[in-house]
Amino acid sequence: MKSIIIFGGAGYIGKHLIRRFSKNGYKVIVPYQKQTNEANLRLYGAVGQIIPFHFNSLKNEKILTLLNKVDFCINLKTSWSSNKSELKRSILDFNAELIEQIKFSSSIKRFVFFSGLGTEQRSTYRNEIISKTEDLVTKNLQKSVVIRPSVILGNNDQFLSNLLPIFKMSFFIPLFGNGSKKFQPVLIDDIVEFVVKTIEANKIGKQLYELAGPDIFTYREFYNLIADAMNKKRVLVPTPMPILKPVVGIAEKLPFFPINSEQLSLFETDNTLSGNESGFSYHEISPKRVISAIKKSL
Prior knowledge:
Blueprint: E1 3-7, H1 12-23, E2 27-32, H2 38-42, E3 50-54, H3 61-66, E4 72-75, H4 84-103, E5 110-114, H5 125-140, E6 144-149, E7 152-153, H6 158-169, E8 172-176, E9 182-183, E10 186-187, H7 188-200, E11 207-211, E12 217-218, H8 219-230, E13 235-239, H9 241-251, H10 261-264, H11 291-297
Parallel strand pairs: 1-2, 1-4, 2-3, 4-5, 5-6, 6-11, 7-10, 8-13
Antiparallel strand pairs: 9-12
């Protein structure tokens, strides 16, 4: 039985990958740091097929042993913290240590690092850290793959799950900026299909892929699409970024504020394919339109 270790596997993307890899007969190891429900994770596979366990650092003896036994490694672990030291520690430093350990593994055939589409276009500290991590991965591991997905949609995804309750409760919908920035959302099922094919491909070598769906929307267009799907009349209220930034900068320090400065930066630039990197076509996958995800979430 082939085996795969997925850091950050308890999150949204990870759970979909676990379900798919378990169906394909893999043993799936899921190390986690934040509290998670191990019993629920185990339900994604047969008895003994999904192995979640808590760890504090990569110096954990069990992790060191597993990295010398598993066939593949995926890192989905990331952070949206506004704390610079936390971002550096959880993304750049974590991957640097993980890479050093993978270098000495004779069993790992491929390492997949999840980045984000448009990272190089946004001048925030988090994106600087992500870019440095991408360079670290591609320069130090010949068997590495970097995947830059766009906003991922699907049943219970984070983006729609946060957005739809606002559309259901309020007649007025806040629009960050003027809503003219574009994005190119992608379905989780297409992401999973691509990752599986990437893991199981015969070709080994440094690779970088940008993944996005076939449709490009402005945020205003997308919000109107949601309102139309709900058959509701909604008024979009643009909020200029010069007003939003200082407000979010203060409010993000509250424990339950829904967005921080790093997340706000997503609405300042277009989040679409650059056209400079390979994508779904590399594995002959035709990504599906996202309207189905909106209807399913509703």
